[in-house]
């Protein structure tokens, strides 16, 4: 009986120790904010502001945290027209570019005594970039009639990019902290179009 009791206590202690090792320093975090996407092509810049969000799981190692995330950077919308409708000189276009990413970050926390923890970090991401185009131009056919020529295309690329992030966290208690931060990410290229992202986000971090 004593041996069985001792074995049970040892097994319970081992299980608790493994659970502590497994969850010690782990956290989840969610951020939302403003994300500005910028596309550069042929010397021109297209940019648009929209909503962006991040869901992350991390491990706090003390001064350094390691974090894996999924981030939606939002999209760029571009549309316009030129010429006079109903003539051979008329053309109109519409396009969107979307960006989302899976990333890994290394973040350094600066210890302070004021309850605020500034941080700075670097991020490497696998980014999915997608561009959709819709163009309509008016031309004169061989019979002398006005006709619309439609061009629809879609391009999807997966690129590796890098970025930096910085901000500050305020701990309400040992489990919950408020996060306010900024970020920059070079997302890669879609054909000849280079894409960058700038963002400002606010979120919550929960420590297990």
Automatic annotation (TrEMBL):
UniProt keywords, alphabetically: Signal
Family, per entry: Belongs to the opacity porin family.
Top-level taxonomy: Bacteria, Pseudomonadati, Pseudomonadota, Gammaproteobacteria, Moraxellales
Organism: Moraxella caprae
Signal peptide (from-to): 1-19
Pfam families: Opacity
The Porin opacity type domain, residue ranges: 57-208
GO CC annotations on file: cell outer membrane
MF terms in GO: porin activity
Protein name, entry field: Opacity protein and related surface antigens
